[in-house]
Each structure stands twice: as C-alpha cells, then as structure tokens.
Design goal:
single chain, 207 residues, alpha/beta, 20% strand
Amino acid sequence: MKKATVYVDGASRGNPGPAAYAYVIQEAGEPPIEKSEYLGDQTNNIAEYSALRQMLHDAVAMGFTDLHVYSDSELMVKQVRGEFKVKNPQIFEIWQEVRKTINKLDHFQIDHVLRGNNKRADELCNIELDRVLKKPGSSAAKPKPATKTSSSKQVSPEKEAYAREECLICIEQAMHNWNRGEAVPTPEQLWDQLWSILDDANILKKS
C-alpha cells in the first residue's frame, strides 16, 4: 500500500479572477511532490476543487492507494465527505469526478485545516499567480476596464438563488447535528462557512 499525506489549495484573486491551484504530496522517506498550475479566471471554489481533482488524478497515476488529504476549504471538505450537498452545477461536475477517483483508492480521508497549517500549498498558489500576472504582455496582468458601479451591488437571481440554497444547507446541517446531539460548528465556524458561500457568489467580499 503506497501511502501519502497531501495538502491542496486553490486561490482566486478577484473571485472570480485569475486563479491557480497547488498540491503537495508527502510520502514517508521521500522528497515532497509539488505541483501548481494557472487556471485563468475562476472562482475560489473552482480553484479548490481543481487542486483536489488534479491531485487525485496524479496520485492514482503514481500508484498511491492511501491518501490523507488536508484542505483549508471547509466547504469543500464537507461536500466531499457528503455532509453538505453540492448545488452549483459546475462544482457538482468536478465533485463527481473527484468521487469517482476516490473510489479507486483503498483508503481516503479528507480533513479541514486552518490556512496557517497549509502554508506550502498556499505559497505555491501565490507563486504561480505572481509568475503569470507579472509576466510582461500577459493578458491576465492587464487591468480590466473600469465599469460604472452603483451604490447598491447588483447580483444576478441565479447567484442569489445559489447562495441562498448553500447557506440554508449549512444552517440546516448545523440544526440537524444539534438535534441529534452531534458536534456542531461554533458560531465563528458557521459564519466562515456562510461568508465563503457569499464570497463565492460575489455577494460579499472579504477585505
């Protein structure tokens, strides 16, 4: 059994905006296997899922059969575990690929870690983004034309519906766990999950 500990991360500057993914595969007694790639304009969630999908594809090709994966995207971790539903069609397509590849493994575990414990994968994402965005003549590095904005942010009905559904799933899951006497997220953790969804839908942005 070929076993490894893995760290995955995805980043988007603008959400959606220039995005990249990275992963670090650590096998005992071997140097780490690192990979990062630019994705073009994508959301944070797409970037996070792209990291997991590509890592799984590569790990299976390299003969790994037992993976313990860490990610700082709590939403993705809970969706992959089956604790949260996936409503976004684009994410669901990647989620299906991820689950199909996981089924090829003898053992798979995915856990959430704080960003501070996922430093190398985060660093690789930013190195990749800096490499592309700072390249002379890169279209990604060119500023987008200024657009008129109003004091009230316009959000498409589709994005609003997506965010509403995902937020309700988070709240309903917390209520379900509470009623069953199971572990529930702290108010801070629940707020982070909700903000991640609103951020992904471009409704709220973290400063």
